[in-house]
Design a protein that fits this description.
It contains 13 helices and five strands. It is of the alpha/beta class.
């Protein structure tokens, strides 16, 4: 290929990128080769470009939403042992995984002791929402409250607006730490700005009657819970911790290996 043809293709690729046809620009040589071999008509060429660009933009949008959500690593629901909890509303959770509560603008609250998979379920729902093209923010309660504790009213207002915008806001681990009374006011502001507009998913290890211990001396707890639970699905998960079970199973496996080695050395 002559240097002139190489330059022309390079220029064309740059032009395609500038007008937003990134997928076509990235695989220009391959596309031209396929079009030449297949003797594609102009219409077919345009249809292939349109399909490639649509798929590429959907992929880039999903990656952007995942980056913004900050869901982190999690196990797939296929690994969830539905038989382990003593009590779990499988039908409600599977319905939530279908994202109906988001389209209805309802909230979802997963309540239960530590180690029963609340965060795993919440992350799976958040991921499902992102892959459906919805904006999601996933943070722990302590991360959100620390983020909102800023001196500038203007900066706080901007951050409150940030948490008000996504279609789904996941607040993980409410109740794992205790906060001062002002933290309850900040959490109320977040909930109030989303009230009857966009969905909230909360995981908590504390019954609502115990939230006064999480936010001691806070005066807005009753109003906060009223807004949070007004349009909400609330499900309680009961049982022993998965992590305790896994630790016990690992200990048994180590003992078996150790005993096997001892027998083999005799």
């Amino acid at each position: 290929m002559s240097s002139q043809m190489t330059t022309q293709k390079s220029d064309l690729s740059a032009q395609l990128s500038r007008i937003g046809l990134r997928a076509t620009a990235a695989s220009l040589d391959d596309f031209i080769a396929r079009a030449t071999r297949g003797r594609l008509s102009p219409r077919t060429m345009l249809e292939q470009i349109a399909r490639a660009e649509t798929a590429d933009r959907a992929h880039r949008n999903q990656q952007r939403l995942l980056s913004q959500a900050r869901i982190g690593r999690f196990k797939p629901m296929a690994d969830f042992d539905w038989d382990w909890p003593k009590k779990i509303d499988r039908e409600l959770i599977e319905r939530a995984l279908g994202l109906d509560f988001i389209s209805e603008g309802r909230n979802l609250i997963l309540l239960g002791a530590n180690g029963l998979g609340k965060t795993m379920i919440a992350k799976q729902i958040a991921y499902s929402a992102v892959t459906s093209g919805l904006s999601v923010v996933f943070r722990t309660a302590s991360e959100i409250l620390a983020d909102l504790e800023c001196d500038s009213p203007q900066m706080r207002r901007r951050k409150l607006n940030y948490y008000a915008r996504p279609r789904l806001l996941c607040i993980d681990e409410v109740g794992y730490l205790s906060y001062d009374p002002s933290a309850a006011d900040l959490l109320y502001e977040v909930i109030n700005r989303r009230y009857e507009r966009c969905s909230i998913l909360i995981t908590t290890n504390r019954a609502f009657k115990e939230w006064n211990a999480v936010f001691p001396n806070a005066t807005c707890i009753a109003t906060l819970l009223d807004r949070l639970t007004h349009h909400a699905e609330i499900t309680v998960i009961e049982g022993q911790s998965y992590r305790v079970r896994e630790s016990e199973m690992e200990s048994r496996e180590r003992r078996k290996k150790s005993q096997g080695k001892e027998k083999g050395s005799k």
